[in-house]
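Hi support team,

I'm opening this ticket because the web form for multi-chain structure prediction keeps timing out on my end. I have pasted the exact lines I submitted so you can reproduce it. The total is 600 residues across two entries, so I didn't expect it to be a heavy job. Is there a limit I'm missing, or should I split the entries? Thanks in advance, R.K.
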Amino acid sequence: MRAASYSTDGIKPIIYNKISTTGQNQPVFTRLLDLIRSVWQDNLKVEMIILASAGPLDPKTGYIYDAPNIPGWKDFPLGEKLHKEFGIPVIVGNDANLAALGEWKFGSGKGHHDLIYMTLSTGIGGGIICNDQLVEGAFGLAGELGHITVLPDGPTCSCGKQGHLEAISSGQGIVQYVDQMLMQGESSILSTSKELNAWEVAKAAETGDELAIKAFSRAGFYLGLALASIIHIFNPSIIILGGGVSKSGALIIDPMIEKMKVEIMDKSYLENLEIVTTKLGDEVGLLGALVLGRQKLQIE
Amino acid sequence: MRAASYSTDGIKPIIYNKISTTGQNQPVFTRLLDLIRSVWQDNLKVEMIILASAGPLDPKTGYIYDAPNIPGWKDFPLGEKLHKEFGIPVIVGNDANLAALGEWKFGSGKGHHDLIYMTLSTGIGGGIICNDQLVEGAFGLAGELGHITVLPDGPTCSCGKQGHLEAISSGQGIVQYVDQMLMQGESSILSTSKELNAWEVAKAAETGDELAIKAFSRAGFYLGLALASIIHIFNPSIIILGGGVSKSGALIIDPMIEKMKVEIMDKSYLENLEIVTTKLGDEVGLLGALVLGRQKLQIE
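Hello R.K., no limit was hit. The queue was backed up. Here is the completed structure from your submission:
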């Protein structure tokens, strides 16, 4: 995890620090406290703490319903605990939502009023800006673009439901498909003898491995299908893709674009639509938190 | 079509008129001009004309790309032509979008900040309010909730693509399914001897006709599937269903709710979600146009 302190203007951190989320037998929350203290500038007034966290969570209270990758963060009152510790206002936002804010203000989304951000990683997260405002929904649970059904009765998603985009086009979806095909006897330089990840599948695809290529094509195909629906719903002027899987580039992007073009019902949706991968990289969450903090403090 | 003149406050029309859209060998545009003149109050200053039209259209210019049910309204500069005729500002909005605005301001959506409106009619239209603002998208083409893919390779939609919600759960989708099943020899009190409509299928279902019941169940099933995705994307606090097909009530609503509950990934999405049918009825478009006009005139 990363932390930074910022002044009321500019985007260059005063202090920046990065540590691994887990380690040394300390609970994640203890490590988070240490990390925040490490970027705390004692001679300056700290106005607010803003966190980008995995969700689902309640952005109004900073209550984490469930952060599947962090042990113990289920029904975890993160905002309240941090407020108790530091005594200043604490805001917790969904990480993909904040990434969308960061891209909109400082990244490829600058100047756009209607933007879709999608992170293709182990899972798939989404962030939506409409009319220059973040779409959080009535209770802060909006933006779950990974949990759109693209294939009824398709593979089981991390959330337990069938056929969601995340179950097919995420890193985990790609790996599960490869595993399943290997088990059915498809030949490949990949094998089930060790635990695969999407990066290894991408490497295999680059050497021409047919199963690996097929796994990415399938992921891109359903991503394109989902994006067509998303475009019909939002009519954005830009779609920004982030996350590790988006770094596989043409492997997933080409079949995605191809399918998207087939599925869009009117070419006017595509005429002024940009589709790009993120340039802010791993700092996008920090920058999104900065935007949210300044909005809350009404600095801009 | 309907027209009304309103004062700057209140929702009771000063003059109201309603005529059939086509007839007497006159072009629709001529009939529209007459209709507008019929509600024009000569002794009062008319500030603005606001129209709710079938789309897709460009709400910035009032240009109709294609209104499939109106002969000649393809690439039709409706806003410009009306402005030339009457010399005052003209705004043209997508009918389902304006219905959402009407419901939000005066109907079941009052007090809600995040609202989904869906009209189930011959086709399926949508209107979305997020953060108290209408979601129009970058070029006014947003809100096409009928054109979400719910069944890849499913039946062909009015837009030409496969497996959209509209192709299955609209009035036309229901009728096409019945026709197809009759052609395959399923028994029913309905027959292909005359052109069916969804209302007749609903009547047959009420007498216990199994095919008719199945057609509505199928429509409700995919509607529930689509709504689950929509809820994951928007986390609304209310969903309002309008249009003729929604009047079939439990026939379509019960299977819809059942499927939706199965597909929602976390019960927190449903805990404070209302699902209702419209109470504003056929006047909802007029009221939505009124809201939009007052917003543009900054009266409220």
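A quick check on our side: The longest strand of chain A covers residues 124-130. Let us know if the file doesn't open in your viewer.
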